[in-house]
Amino acid sequence: MDIENQALADGHGPNISQAFTINGQPGDLYNCSFGTYKLKVVQGKTYLLRIINVALYSELFFKIANHTMTVVAVDACYTNPMVTDVMVISPGQTIDVLLTADQPLASYYMAAHYYDSLGSAYDATTTTAIITYENAKPSTPLMPNLPAVNDTSAAFKFFSSLTSLVNGPHWAPVPLKIDEEMFLTEGLGLVPCGANNTCGAPLGLQFAASMNNESFELPTKLSMLEASYYNLTAGIYTTDFPKYPPMVFDYTNITNILNKALVMTSRSTKVTKLKYNSTVEIVFQNTALVGEQSHPIHLHGYNFYVLAQGFGNYDPIIGPKMFNLVNPQKRNTVAVPVAGWTVIRFTANNPGYILMNHCATTAEGEAIALALMDCLTDSQVQYSSALKFGH
């Protein structure tokens, strides 16, 4: 809370963390009094590791020395088994992997460090945990060779290679008839500081998470659910959230960085009303207005199909030809590629006021709420800077 309050007061993002952790322990590479998480395994056995990124805003590369992992689920949705030696995980995402203890009796580091797609200041440390084979002689753990922190190609390869396990538990075909379409530019924008304040964001302004130049803020007088129930919506929220950006421009062109005609964002409490059981398709278009960055987007209360991902500006002619309508991955959090786009599709069958937000602190703010049948949960997800897993 202190970090969040300071970020709000200063108008910039949260301070850079001093360490990452695995199950609450930073590991051997830090000069501190905390410890290292250790996992003992038996040679020949296979372990299910459930991994979740609970970092505040850091995407993380994760790797285990001399071992491969088989991804079998993401965000609790089954995938076709995918063998990989490295993965990237965004804030709020979960990944289930099978790890087979098939290496010589020894100790091996699992390690994670930042995936930096922005090129700004970041936590350059690496957290570690140790896998030790039963009956192994004491030895220095082997260290994995993690990707470079700016290896966007490695991140995109992992994210875009996942597919769903068709006919597996809870599988349902992709709905083909689209009832609602939205095109959302998303990223960071800027808002004015309070009276007589100079904030720490560029141009002396304050950061605000932005979708179509709107930055969602919770009402202070009455919850949106109560306002809807008692038909007292006036002064609480409006239903005019824009389904398309207010201005069409070259979204990923870095010459538009800090272009004040485009980057200014409004604080508002706006929602989009969706008809119950309608099929909704959303194009998330990253922008370069405050630098090029990968943005995790989370939809509360839903899983959605990730139909396609790519770089540059979304092309409405070429894009649909890239759609995977057979076995697309299902998620509830997706990382929109740096200077790129992602298309998702879901069925609006969970009534409520559902937040769809950047994985960001309230210093940057939420970006949008989707209204489904006039009910709301105005909860908010916050994450600490850590990586957790169980087995």
UniProtKB/TrEMBL annotation:
Name this protein carries in UniProt: Uncharacterized protein
